[in-house]
# Entry
Amino acid sequence: MSNILTLQAAAAERLALHLPSASTLRVAGIVPAQDATAYASPAVTATFVGASTADFALLLVDRSFLAAAGGSGLVGAVSAVDVLRPALEQAASAFDAGVLGELREEDAAGLLSDPGTAVFELRDAHQANDGGAPFAWFAVRVRDNGGTLNTARAGQDSDVAARLGLISSVEMALTVEIGRTRMSVRDALALEPGRVIELDRSAGAPADVLLNGRLIAHGEVVVVDQDYAVRITRILDGAEGTL
# Structure
């Protein structure tokens, strides 16, 4: 399997693992693009930009799970792009450092017609390959920014560095996260002063440091001149930051 196809398959596997479906999903394999053509619109699309550029399109057969994932009983009451963004960010993490752009709902026929696009079929893990319609299709196209993905990733040297240097002064959001939890829209709307929200982290555990939503380090919260600050205790490598 080529390096490009390996990256495409890894993105599909991560997406299947993190889609907020009630059933466990698996990647059933690569299928011809025409299998998904009937569902090309509307698709949820996004572009990832890093050392490589990747175009994604998620084509859902049944969107009913989006309402439950968003905490609403009504289909269309919540935005598909908001519900699906965390899963697509996980898919993008297969491509190392970079930024996932805005998610859109649009026709994906152009992406599906590109011979460089790999289309992966996602199915219920307990469903046979010929057991009815799949859950979704995930289309991935990789553009290597003029370089080559068939060399080791460590070999992407001065050319990539020079291009990234063009955006070295761009401001990015650095966030410190002490914990998180999940709640439905109904529970979020019921919040009021004095309400205690329990997080998924014990007292004293390190805080996560995220750059544009990507985990890059761990640290501890301190107070400096009456302001909160974070002392970095560990810088993560690329593989750890994808977890």
Summary: The first helix runs from residue 3 to 18. Residues 3-165 form a domain with the Chemotaxis protein chec fold (CATH 3.40.1550). The first strand starts at residue 25 and ends at 30. Residues 147-157 have pLDDT under 50 and may be disordered.
